[in-house]
Amino acid sequence: MTTAKDIMHPGAQWIPAHETLDRAAQLMRNLNVGALPVADENERLCGIITDRDIVVGCVAMGHDPARTTCGEMCKGTPRWVESGADVGAVLEEMQGHQIRRLPVIEDKRLVGMISEADLAQHLSDEQLKAFCESVYAPS
């Protein structure tokens, strides 16, 4: 059985909820990623911040990314998957919530992220087609 841990990108980094969006953007640039999991003071996942969130939700709204925190931008219930979950559970979570990135948790700690690129490397063409149709379908 292929698990989330088998297909994830290991070594994902999170950013504390109290950090500002400009710091998040710098970290994204340095890591060459488009999203960062956001953690509370107990290092527990409380959301995800994306480059699009920073641009559309902060900059385009006239807010200062140096004064807006990641925690302020996080909305909704964060989605994640256990490292031992099978690929079917990963797809169900991502398709069911129309998300493109999924944190992988092990022993209540972030151990990796699954992105579309990870799926493209590990799914059959049929699975990938179904994923794209459900995630990119209009809500």
From TrEMBL:
Pfam families given in the database record: CBS
SMART domains, A to Z: CBS
Cross-referenced CDD domains: CBS_pair_HRP1_like
InterPro entries (alphabetical): CBS_dom (IPR000644), CBS_dom_sf (IPR046342), Diverse_CBS-Domain (IPR051257)
Keywords on record: CBS domain
Residue ranges occupied by any CBS domain in the UniProt entry: 8-65, 73-130
Protein name stated in the entry: CBS domain-containing protein
Originating species: Streptomyces venezuelae (strain ATCC 10712 / CBS 650.69 / DSM 40230 / JCM 4526 / NBRC 13096 / PD 04745)
